[in-house]
Each structure stands twice: as structure tokens, then as C-alpha cells.
Amino acid sequence: MRGMPGHRYSIGYTARCPDSSDRNMTLANRITIFRLSLIPVLCVCIFFYSREREWLRWAALGVYVFVAVSDFADGFIARRYQQRSRLGARLDPLADKLVVNLGLVFLAANWEFGPRLPMWFPVFILGRDIFIVMGAYTIKVYAGKLRVEPRFSGKLSTAFQIATIIGMLLGVSFLPFLYYSTVAVSLYAVLGYVAMGYRQITQRSATG
Fold first, then answer.
1. DSSP state letter for 73
2. Residue 10 pLDDT greater than 60, yes or no
3. How many domains does the chain have?
4. How many helices (H) and strands (E) does the chain have?
5. Are 106 and 127 in a shared domain?
6. Same domain, 103 and 170
7. Do 27 and 103 sit in the same domain of this protein?
8. pLDDT at res. 84
9. Do 38 and 128 belong to one domain?
10. Per residue in 99-114, is it b (16+ CB within 10 Å) or e — as a string?
11. Domain carrying residue 205
């Protein structure tokens, strides 16, 4: 477009460059955030459950199953459509740990559920997670870099934790078998992580 002499004008638009918030607010991350928002709903259903309010048991079960399915969905979407992000890498494991640990604590604290879940069980699961986090920090301090290697035992441990919560909400008679099996698998997974961490530290010492 021509204008006054010595001046040049153009008609058009400036493309909006995506900022970090655009990249973080992917569909996968939105699902994860929604999953986080459902955790208080799950806890409220478990907390107010009684034998006179049996519907709350089924409401809690429905919420928990939906949370578990959405966990699979956001992981699949992130991998399939290349929507991995730093925000997702932090939020996804946070949501997983919160729904398991808080769910177990509230289930063990409500004596209306039967069969009952012993109070030491959520303490054990939380202690296991704290131990793994502290171990990862120790490896990073001594080895300088942490190589996270997915392990089948870790996935199996998570599966047993989920099965224990579902079994508790369903009121299955073999609940003790579920939580004792979860303890055994969790200890096995911890030993695997300890061995992996030890290898990384010794390799660092050998090359250093």
C-alpha cells in the first residue's frame, strides 16, 4: 500500500507466537488437571460413607475408576500426539501419588468400610514413596545425573495398589490377600530401585 512519500505501509497481521503456557496447556495436561480436581471428590465420598449411605461407596468407586481411565488416556494422548511437556511430567506423577495415598488414608480411617484396611498399610505405601524420592535425590547428588529406567516391578506395584483400593471399595472378602500382596510386590520394587541406584553411583565413582 502506498502512502505519503517516504513512508511505507503494509496490511497484514502478526502471527502469534505460542508461549510456554500454550505449550503446557495441551489436551493431555488438561485431562491431568481435571483428574487432580476429582481427588477431593473421591476423598469426600469416602469420608462421608456409612452403611446407611451405601451409594457413596459406589460414587467413590465410579470416581476412582474414571480417574484411573483418565490416567491411561492422558498418557496415551501425550505419547500419540507428541504432547509431552515439563508441566505434564510433574503433574502426572503427582496426581497418581495423591489419588493412591489420599485414597488409602481415607479408606483406612473410615471404619464403616468392611472388610477394614489396617492403618499401617497407607503409612507403608507413603513411606515407600518417600524412600524412593529421597533415594532419587541421593543418586542425583552423588552421581550428578539420575537415569530413570521404567521397571516392570514398579508398574506391578502400582497395579496392586489400584487393585487394593478397588477391592476395598467393592468390599471383597479377599482384601487381606490384596494388601499383603501389595506389600510384597512393593518391597520387591524398592529393592529393584535400590539396586539400580547403587549401579548408577558405582558407575559414577568408577568414571570419576
1. H
2. no
3. 2
4. 7, 0
5. no
6. no
7. yes
8. 84
9. no
10. bbbbbbbbbbebeebe
11. 114-208
Cell numbers 479408606 label which residue? 107
CB 166 within 8 Å of CB 61 = yes
Helix (H, G, I), strand (E, B) or coil at 104: helix
For residue range 136-182, list pLDDT tens digits in order.
Answer: 888 777 766 766 666 788 889 989 999 999 999 999 999 999 999 99
Please tell me the distance from the alpha carbon of residue 53 to that of residue 63, in angstroms, as a whole number: 16
Per-residue confidence at 15, pLDDT binned at 50, 70, 90?
A: very low
Q: Which of 96, 113, 130 is the last residue of a domain?
A: 113
Q: Residues 191, 151: one domain?
A: yes
Query: Mind listing the pLDDT tens digit for each residue in 19-69?
Result: 444 566 889 899 999 999 999 999 999 999 999 999 999 999 999 999 989
- Classify residue 116 by its DSSP letter: P
The residue written with cell numbers 553411583 in the block is: 201
Are residue 63 and residue 151 in the same domain, yes or no? no
